[in-house]
């Protein structure tokens, strides 16, 4: 193993000065990153200035327009929530709310704290809360999280400090939804009601009421945060002086940055081999957290082979194609070779460890024990009248889901093609283009990953398989819609668990998506960094981070 000693910072940079130094350093050096960091070191004072490196590119910091982990990472720092969880906890409690409780079977009432304001001085009242949720459902952006609010009928504001949510059906997950990407509270005096607001305008207007504000912002380049003195929520004042996020295009550069001390923390995404190596490097710590992340393949039921918009449209044949893919793929081989077992095989839609998780796909596809079965795939295709080899194109993105995606999808291609039943082509597309094209009926099949909004099985079911799902893959089934509502309204825990298990079998019969791998949370930090908490809430909060 390679070893090195991580140098401590000799001077501190904050705010604009730090951003400028990083931008200048990006123009030189072998890896595009200079040797000046953001940590306060001996001269930083307080808890210092924290510099985080990531390859995880975001879409937008407008809560109505993004449903991805990178964007939500920023939102968690700068927007307030009615309910939230403290670092180390996954259960939610009032954040900017004073109280929050069910006041009826389909009624949830929140009372806001007194004297709340945004960083720009505007008051934060019940009207802003209603505006934030109405805006989500009115815009219903194709890349947004409004699907999480499908059970929300209306929002009422009896006074400036009271918000009453009226639900269509009883919903035991609704308190968790209020801490999700659908729930950041925005300033109604700044955000338009019917369209997205550009990131630069959000920053210029300082429309923030979370623990931090954004001082400097360059899209997928640098974001600099400083404590928000107006924040009056659960998480309290940040323990550091500032946090800067620097975006790297390659995981190899991110590894070099944390190893050489150019960043204090590397978070999403390093190669599994790099994480293994860095565990042995003097001066670095690897922080592991519970894994709710999954990797999966989406089939577009309109343009996949035999899809509804193709000349040879045949629902039975299209289903046989999807099922044959599930029969052939060897998740264990992909886990070991592409991810060095840092991801583990996933055989259902709800990941292992959550209540109601099962292995429906293992039972229904392949050899029945998790292995591939090409003969079974061939039988399915023949019975459905499918001509082989089936031509199938799959799109993936290395800049979004890590460089290991190239190995992962090369193995998927090879496993399918080696049977002679498929003729698969693959292509990698930059994330900004990918996220637009995946909803435009361009990709027959494509890669996606999921980092949960909250730790409940429904978060792996309703957003994907309700008729109004975010996948835009043309999957819709009335029976599944009813079953999704049934399980989320069930108050008896044992009955709900049974319904979640049955739902996974129902979806597995249709197979609109194919779960592949389940991963863990990982961050690599310099040894002078403390307070990095990766917990079951799946939220990385910056306020607890300190530099000693």
Automatic annotation (TrEMBL):
Does the keyword field hold Transport? yes
Q: Got a GO cellular component term for this one?
A: periplasmic space
Q: Which residues cross the membrane?
A: none
**InterPro entries documented for this protein:** Peptide/Ni-bd, SBP_5, SBP_5_dom
* Alphabetically ordered keywords of this record: Signal, Transport
Signal peptide per UniProt: 1-19
Chief place of localization: other
Which positions fall inside the Solute-binding protein family domain?
92-469
Tell me if Signal is a UniProt keyword of this record.
yes
Molecular function GO labels = peptide transmembrane transporter activity
Which Pfam families does the entry mention?
SBP_bac_5
Q: Which GO terms describe its biological process?
A: peptide transport
Location(s) in or outside the cell: Cell envelope
The UniProt entry's sequence similarity note says: Belongs to the bacterial solute-binding protein 5 family.
Protein name, UniProt field: Peptide ABC transporter substrate-binding protein
Native organism is Nesterenkonia alkaliphila
């Amino acid at each position: 193993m390679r070893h090195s000693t991580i140098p401590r910072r000799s001077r501190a940079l904050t705010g604009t000065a730090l951003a400028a130094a990083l931008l200048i350093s990006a123009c030189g050096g072998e890896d595009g990153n200079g040797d000046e960091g953001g940590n306060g070191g001996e001269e930083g004072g307080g808890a210092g200035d924290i510099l985080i490196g990531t390859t995880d590119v975001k879409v937008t910091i407008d809560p109505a327009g993004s449903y991805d982990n990178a964007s939500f990472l920023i939102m968690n720092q700068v927007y307030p929530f009615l309910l939230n969880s403290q670092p180390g906890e996954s259960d939610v409690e009032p954040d900017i709310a004073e109280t929050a409780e069910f006041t009826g079977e389909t009624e949830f009432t929140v009372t806001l704290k007194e004297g709340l304001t945004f960083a720009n001085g505007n008051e934060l009242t019940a009207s802003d809360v209603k505006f934030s949720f109405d805006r989500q459902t009115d815009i219903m952006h194709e890349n947004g999280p409004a699907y999480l609010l499908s059970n929300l009928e209306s929002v009422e504001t009896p006074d400036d400090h009271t918000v009453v949510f009226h639900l269509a059906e009883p919903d035991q997950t609704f308190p968790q939804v209020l801490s999700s990407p659908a729930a950041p509270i925005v300033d109604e005096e700044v955000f338009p009601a019917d369209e997205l607001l550009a990131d630069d305008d959000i920053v210029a207007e300082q429309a923030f009421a979370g623990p931090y504000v954004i001082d400097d912002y360059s899209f997928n380049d640098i974001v600099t945060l400083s404590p928000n003195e107006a924040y009056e929520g659960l998480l309290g004042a940040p323990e550091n002086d500032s946090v800067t996020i620097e975006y790297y295009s390659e995981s190899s550069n991110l590894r070099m940055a944390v190893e050489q001390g150019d960043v204090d923390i590397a978070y999403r995404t390093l190669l599994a081999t790099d994480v293994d190596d860095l565990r042995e490097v003097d001066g670095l710590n690897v922080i592991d957290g519970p894994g709710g992340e999954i990797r999966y393949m989406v089939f577009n039921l309109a343009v996949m082979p035999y899809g509804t918009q193709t000349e040879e449209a045949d629902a039975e044949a299209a289903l046989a194609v999807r099922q044959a893919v599930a029969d052939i793929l060897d998740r264990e081989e992909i886990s070991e070779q592409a991810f060095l077992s840092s991801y583990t095989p996933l055989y259902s839609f709800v990941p292992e460890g959550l209540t109601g998780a099962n292995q429906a796909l293992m039972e229904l596809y392949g050899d029945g024990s998790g292995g591939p079965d090409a003969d079974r795939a061939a039988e399915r295709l023949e019975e459905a009248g499918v001509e082989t080899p089936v031509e199938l194109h799959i799109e993936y993105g290395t800049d979004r889901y890590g460089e290991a995606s190239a190995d992962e999808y090369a193995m998927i291609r090879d496993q399918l093609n080696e049977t002679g039943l498929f003729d698969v082509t693959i292509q990698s597309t930059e994330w900004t283009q990918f996220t637009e094209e995946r909803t435009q009926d361009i990709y027959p099949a494509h890669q996606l990953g999921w980092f949960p909004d909250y730790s409940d099985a429904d978060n792996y079911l309703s957003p994907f398989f309700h008729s109004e799902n975010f996948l835009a893959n043309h999957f819709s089934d009335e029976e599944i819609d009813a079953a999704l509502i049934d399980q989320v309204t069930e108050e008896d825990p044992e009955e709900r668990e049974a319904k979640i298990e049955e739902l996974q079998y129902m979806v597995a019969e249709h197979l609109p998506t194919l779960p592949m791998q389940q991963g863990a949370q990982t961050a690599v930090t310099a040894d002078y960094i403390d307070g990095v908490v990766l917990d079951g809430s799946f939220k990385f909060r910056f306020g607890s981070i300190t530099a000693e």
